[in-house]
Amino acid sequence: MKAGFRPYNVLTLKQALEVAERSGYAIGSFSPRYTPMIAPVLRAAQQTLSPAIVQISHKELVRYGIAPQEFADEFYARVRGEDITVPVVLHLDHTKEMETIAAAIEAGFTSVMIDASEKPLAENIAISKMAADYAHKHGVSVEAELGMIGTTDFVETDKDEELYTNPQEARLFVAETGIDALAVSCGTAHGVYMVRQPKIDLARLKAIRALTNVHLVLHGGSGVPAEMMAGAIRLPGGGVSKVNIATDLELSFLAAIGREERMTNAECQALEPAMLERGRSAVQATVADKITRFLGSGGQASGFALAQ
Q: Which residues belong to the signal peptide in this entry (predicted)?
């Protein structure tokens, strides 16, 4: 989908984060994981008058059986069909394959993430720069990762190793790659916190902010206490302006329909309508709660100058 045919309120990540960082709040980057969950994420954003990011990772596409075009088509159909007027972004999360990035951009994603964080610094820079150059040529924003963000469930990434972001390396990385947003490793992890407890190294975040002017992203937002997240968002000079939230959405959906095991997207679509609506209502409530009590983005849609 070419930019000129996008709804007026569908923005790039860079456009959205510039406003959020300037205004001192973070935008939630919500992973529906099942296409029927896209609508409740958008409904919650509209309900709370908040900007929002809808995202899915390469591993989620594979695990849940979704093609980038299918995900994008449902997103745009819901934006139009649900009369969504708040600013929204369609983002491809953790991706190592340029083919997936190309397919997502062709499908209408307005932001992509290249994750070469397991590579040596020089190789990570080279791969991230290549992805940034390609995406920017197509008018799409780019996020990359430096350091390694751990995981507990292997849904978004395939390693549980953790390596905190080095602030000096971050300065070089941002300057050399030309990325729009940087995912930093400073204590959070993907998935459910069970044995380990969430933490955020604010001193490290401050050092990264002092040495870079790029928008900062925190992955692993599910399960992090609100007061801890607030400290990361409100750092002097601009803190974290994008927070990824995935696991909490799926857990609320599964609990509402009385199920513990994940399912495929096709299985989700085949649920009995009343059961599906219960799950959707739970997801909408979870997203609205994150927006109002966790991110500080409620009511912030009015801060965007959207030209219709």
A: none
